[in-house]
Amino acid sequence: MARRKRKKHDDHVDESWLVPYSDMLTLLLALFIVLFAMSEVDASKFKQMASAFNDEFTGGTGMMDEQAPISSPETDPLPDKEKLVQLSLQEKERMEKAKKELESLQEVKKHIDNFIEDKDLSKSLQTKLTENGLLITILDNALFDSGSAEVKPESVGIGKDLSKLLVTNPPRNIIIAGHTDNVPIKNAQYTSNWELSAMRAINFMQILRTNPNLSPKTLSASGYGEYRPRASNKTAEGRAKNRRVEVLVLPNYSLEKDK
To answer: Looking at residues 98-108, what average pLDDT do you find?
Structure first.
């Protein structure tokens, strides 16, 4: 009989102490989370955490009863399948646009290469597809006399023929840049190689502008003097490579632009 009473008494052991104990453990856990979060200072997250603690200590519902106010890449839900598919399609579309633009520039390069071959200008003109666009390099001896920025009369035709090959649909922006070697210029007209290179770029751009089908809005010119050499200025051959005009045809679409 005594055993039965003792068993019945044991079934009703007072467990009310577990409630404050559980709350204390909850607060300790939250404290450690705060300390961890403070190791990487983030003002917005800290403010959210402080607000959550304020609710807890002023009689809120308890931190474990509601969704945590702080989110992180580790706890945020992953995008649903539909969103992932959409992102994949957008990426594919971007790649397709960039590919079509590259193919279009390759076609322009092909026409210019044929022009160079027909005119026997391979020693003076070169083309190259770069990450920035289609680069056309014209050595200065094909366009200018030494120390001059005026395009030689017999070379004006090169600029006019090239302007026809630069007409595209849709139009592309074109940058003409002048470059020199590092030998100081010695004449009364130009005080520096920088000034000479800029005037050479502008004068060649003016020839391109004579083509009414090439929009002036797409053209710009700049001069870099001797500060962007392609080769060493210590040799005559290297200095000859550095004296040049570059025509850069920019792509209408690229992955870099899209970013």
So the answer is: 93
Longest dimension (CA), the chain: 127
* Size of the chain in residues: 259
Which residues, 6 or more positions from 177, have their beta carbon under 8 angstroms from its beta carbon?
197, 201, 221, 222, 223, 224, 245, 246, 248
Tokens of 40: 């990487």
Phi, psi at residue 158, to the nearest 5°?
-60, -45
Q: Report the C-alpha gap between 222 and 177 in whole angstroms.
A: 5
Q: The tokens of 202 are what?
A: 């502008």
Q: Is the previous residue joined to 212 through a cis bond, with omega within 30 degrees of 0?
A: no
**How confident is the model over 54-66, as pLDDT tens digits?**
554 455 444 444 4
Cα distance between residue 248 and residue 121, in whole Å: 18
Token couple for 80: 């649903």
Under 8 Å CB-to-CB from 48, ≥6 apart: which residues? 69, 70
Of 149, 143, 150, 137, the closest CA to residue 229 belongs to: 137
pTM value is: 0.66
**With the CA atoms of 185, 190, 191 and 195 taken in that order, what torsion angle do they form, in degrees rounded to the nearest 10?**
-100
